[in-house]
Amino acid sequence: MTYSIALIPGDGIGPEVITPATEVLDTIGDASGHVFNYVELEAGGCAIDRTGEPLPKETLEAVKQCDALLLGAVGGPQWETLPGHLRPERALLGLRSGLGVFANLRPAKLLPQLRSACPLKDDVLVSSNSEGKAEFDLLIVRELTGGLYFGERGRSADHRAAFDTETYTWDEIERTLRMGCEAAMGRRKKLCIVDKANVLESSRLWREVAAVVSKAYPDIETSFLYVDNAAMQLVRAPGQFDVIATSNLFGDILSDEASALAGSIGMLPSASLGGPLAKNGRPMGMYEPIHGSAPDIAGKNIANPLGAILSAALMLRYSCGLEKEARAVEDAVSAALDAGLRTRDIAAKGRTAANETIVGAREMGEAVIALLEKTL
Ligand code: IPM
Ligand code: MG
User: Fold this and answer.
1) pLDDT digit string, tens, across residues 80-127
2) Is 43 in the pocket of ligand 1 (CB under 6 A)?
3) CATH code of the domain containing 345
4) What range does the domain containing 126 cover?
5) What is the pTM of this model?
């Protein structure tokens, strides 16, 4: 098959992590006969510099013609003083809503090789893991095109008061929870809905919808947590979670927290799904590592490309239907970690472990490819 992939490397470390990710895809292509045709596009700060807009209309239109979008990161200090609607981050919001990808899947998994990069103590990890291992494996399903990010916002006439609103419709909640339930069915069949129903009316609507949706999934054990408690439970006993379904803002915050427990924000991939099917009849998806543009380390070849590479794996799985290839990429990442290769962010904290070698983004990408080639 031939797949057309929109590529938005973006700003900061975006290009440095997207290059190894596309090289990984090309390795898959060479071995399997599938062809990945890239359509390189601009969004974020680089688009502002060239066109004055974070998300040029042509970019969104071109992405819609593709089978999937792989994005690095957008943003940087030079654009931070621009008004809200002209900031690079608007490009992300415009792409998410423009593509209709309302569910953001963020798997957060502590790989055994990264145990020493996780800040939690052994007993904290072990006590909540059903197999008594110092590991956890959870999935955050974050609502992505509604809530506070897209609600009405503004300023008072004198600009001394400001507001943002959290609005959710029944349908927006229902489709997100269904996605959460579908994900849970393919995993350990546990769904925890995170909200703030003791205070927010919109959260109480989430609970009403959940009561209806959960009837269609009798095999799933559904629970509810207030977000403050969930933030605490994540560090107290991360192994208790399977799938967490939550609103846009809460998902944003909890996924950063979960990523630190998984060793580094540089490790986490994401898949945004739920919009219209692509021309090839498969789910069109937007795939991005959850880390940002990290301008402080951009251009130094020290970024972690694994979040982007694992995002490419999710793309192979969901938008290309290439499960075997997706697993091969994930296994190659795991093998690179087995071999002791570490970017700085995932090296053992505070000391250099004897069996670890610190490498750059390029070298990590090359290692993953070499290990991948062996298995294809
Ligand atoms: C993320 C990021 C974005 C978000 C920012 C850059 C707008 O933090 O993808 O998690 O808040 O959604
Ligand atoms: Mg975030």
Assistant:
1) 999 989 999 999 999 999 999 999 999 999 999 999 999 999 999 999
2) no
3) 3.40.718.10
4) 119-261
5) 0.96
